[in-house]
Amino acid sequence: MRPRFDELARLRTVVAIAIALSLGACATPRTGTEGNVSTPVPGSVLRASTLTRALEDDILAIDPEHVSDTNVRQTLALGPAPRIMSIHGGIYPVHLVMESFAEFLVRMGYPERAVRDPGTHDLTHSPYEEARVLAGEVAWYYEQEGVRPMLVGHSQGGMQAVKILYELSGTFDDRIVMINPLTHHEEDRTTFLDPLSGAVRPITSLRIPYASSVGAGGLTNLLPNQ
């Protein structure tokens, strides 16, 4: 079950959306978290940025309505990109839809490091993972990378994406524990260091720039995990 996009115009539209979301959510983050497991100190994320002034100028010079394959693969892929946390459906073979979507993003030029889970190396998350755990990982990514993640969920995964938003707003609990996605272990804190302001903030104060829920709801509301 792989999406087919036969028109070049549609492909460019998808990439243009990704560019707009990237620029709207980005500061000057590092390119990945695989080699960094320490708690940042004020200013450390920005100082560790690999984004050069020349690359920043090249990215800002791109016209989002006229994006070429060269723009994507030689410019955008080298710069900052919000981590996309894809959450697949819960019944086989529904999960293949989101896996195919994640592969599509990578093949279109979206940095694979910003799509794949750094701990499990999976392209998508299971809808059976606890929403509070994924919310804790969202805060960890922002603290470590300087870019707020985006959520995309399908079917039960779409419902889980909405639950993560509720968790981050403090609806279910006003204390969300930080989760390290490299180890999937809890850290003994419910706050994060804002990499842009240097302020220590509660995880429930974090807002993400984009979330999408597709094909969710209906009879799946009756399932025990929902």
Describe this structure in words.
It is a single chain. The chain is of the alpha/beta class and 226 residues long. The protein has one domain (8-222). It contains 7 helices and 7 strands; from the N terminus they run H-H-H-H-E-H-H-E-H-E-E-E-E-E. The chain has helices spanning 8-25, 44-47, 53-60, 69-74, 95-107, 131-145, 156-168, and strands at residues 84-87, 150-154, 179-180, 185-186, 191-193, 200-202, 211-214. The protein has a 3-stranded parallel β-sheet with strand order 1-2-7, sandwiched between helices. Strand 3 and strand 4 (185-186) form a beta hairpin. Helix 6 (131-145) packs across helix 7 (156-168). The model is unreliable at 1-11 and 13-31 (pLDDT under 50).
Key phrases:
disordered N terminus; 226 residues; three-stranded parallel β-sheet; two-stranded antiparallel sheet; globular
Number of discrete helical segments: 7
Question: How much helical structure, as a percent, in the residues?
Answer: 25-40%
Mean pLDDT: 83
Question: Which descriptor suits the 3D outline?
Answer: globular
Number of domains: 1
The main β sheet shows up as: 3 strands, parallel
> From N to C, what is the helix and strand string?
HHHHEHHEHEEEEE
Classify the beta-strand content into a percent band.
5-15%
Give me the count of strands: 7
N-to-C terminal Cα separation, in Å? 25 Å
Unreliable segments (pLDDT under 50, ≥5 consecutive)? 1-11, 13-31
The structure class reads alpha/beta
In which order are the strands of the major sheet placed?
Answer: 1-2-7
Q: What is the gyration radius calculated from CA atoms?
A: 17 Å
